[in-house]
Backbone:
């Protein structure tokens, strides 16, 4: 089983500085009928030039969803920044249903950013909001505006303000664990090693990451604070310590341990450090992931002769087998609403599949054959995963695909933060 290979990690260094950031490229088709939208560059009322182009960030956010087709800046027919400047008939004739205008006031120490989303054919405002921010927070404000627009027009929550973590491998063979904004900007180093880094996973509050490391010739699980970089060794039992996963309330950590022989699923209480064994079988049980209600786990086991997905109560008992198609199904993770499980499906390579919990129907999302480590976006609309030496993002209906690269480096082990 691919994810059961234990790799010894050594020579770890904590680095707070940023290095290579990710670049995104739409490689698949956009959704049929992607909505045109015009996002006018925000006016700077007091003439202080900011260090971020808010309109460009919003445009890129919406474009990557595949549901919107922003007008190129050089194709805008006008550049209003107040509603009384908008000539609605002109935009109607251009068949642009929605228009975003905005303005900035103040200084880098205290900006006020206002925007309005307008319905061109109704001659009316859909939403209008105002934000206060320092110059260092402008990207975050831009992502929040993207969220507001996305939710107003689709009814779904946006995820533009969230983060991702991922691991890169440089040409020199150095592995680095990064945390970055969901659009790849503001990448920061959490950990570096001369050997691979495994299984990063977010806490539900987005403030900590758990991962597997090897120091002093012993495999262990650590939890590291995103802001302070302080970390705590959580599990270094005899044998394998792997596949950490936070419970939905952040109070417990599921993991796979072989301290009693073969790998089994355990749950550790992070306050009391009490450990509860969940599975008990001579097979290999690994890769636990929590259901959204915190009452069960999906995990990978070869107890029927090949890796398959199973579901079990956190209190133990008999697990329920979930996958039956193919001889390799692993790395399962629940969608935020619990209705689906994304997983790795083998057979002529490894591809990303989605399982309906209710019907058991499987849909394959990816087209490549060296995929790994799928992770849902916190609104359930997209999945990020490793695709050979790159990352990829695919919409849950498979219509929109993105390729994500880091210059001069291989990228893998992605995981999306919570909202």
Residues:
């Amino acid at each position: 089983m691919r994810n059961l290979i234990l790799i010894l990690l050594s020579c770890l260094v904590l680095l707070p500085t940023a290095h290579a950031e990710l670049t995104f490229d739409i490689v698949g088709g956009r959704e049929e009928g992607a909505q045109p939208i015009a996002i006018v560059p925000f006016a700077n009322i007091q003439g202080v030039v900011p260090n971020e182009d808010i309109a460009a960030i919003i445009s890129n956010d919406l474009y990557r969803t595949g549901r919107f087709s922003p007008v190129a800046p050089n194709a805008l027919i006008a550049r209003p920044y107040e509603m009384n400047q908008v000539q609605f008939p002109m935009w109607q004739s251009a068949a642009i249903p929605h228009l975003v205008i905005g303005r900035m006031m103040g200084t880098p120490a205290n900006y006020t950013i206002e925007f309005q989303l307008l319905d061109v054919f109704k001659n009316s405002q859909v939403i209008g909001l105002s934000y206060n921010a320092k110059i260092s927070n402008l990207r975050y404000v831009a992502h929040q505006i993207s969220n507001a627009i996305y939710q107003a027009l689709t009814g779904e929550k946006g995820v533009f303000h969230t983060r991702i973590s991922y691991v890169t491998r440089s040409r020199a063979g150095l592995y680095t664990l990064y945390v970055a904004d969901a659009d790849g900007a503001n990448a920061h180093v959490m950990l570096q090693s001369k050997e691979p880094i495994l299984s990063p996973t977010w806490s539900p509050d987005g403030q900590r990451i758990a991962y597997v490391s090897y120091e002093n010739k012993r495999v262990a699980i650590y939890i590291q604070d995103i802001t302070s970089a302080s970390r705590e060794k959580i599990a270094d039992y005899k044998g394998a310590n792997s596949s950490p996963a936070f419970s939905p309330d952040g109070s417990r950590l599921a993991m796979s341990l072989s301290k009693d022989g073969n790998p089994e699923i355990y749950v550790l209480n992070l306050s009391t450090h009490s450990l509860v064994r969940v599975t008990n079988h001579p097979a290999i049980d690994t890769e636990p992931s929590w259901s959204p209600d915190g009452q069960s786990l999906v995990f990978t086991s070869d107890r029927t002769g090949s890796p398959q997905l199973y579901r079990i109560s956190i209190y133990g008992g008999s697990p329920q087998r979930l996958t039956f198609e193919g001889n390799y199904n692993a790395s399962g993770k629940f969608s935020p609403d619990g209705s689906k499980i994304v997983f790795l499906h083998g057979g002529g390579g490894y591809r990303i599949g989605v399982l309906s919990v209710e019907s058991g129907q499987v849909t394959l999302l990816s087209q490549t054959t060296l995929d790994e480590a799928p992770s849902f976006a916190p609104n359930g609309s997209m999945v990020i995963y490793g695709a050979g030496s790159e990352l990829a993002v695919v919409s849950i209906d498979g219509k929109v695909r993105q390729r994500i690269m880091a210059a001069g480096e291989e990228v893998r082990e992605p995981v999306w933060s919570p909202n």
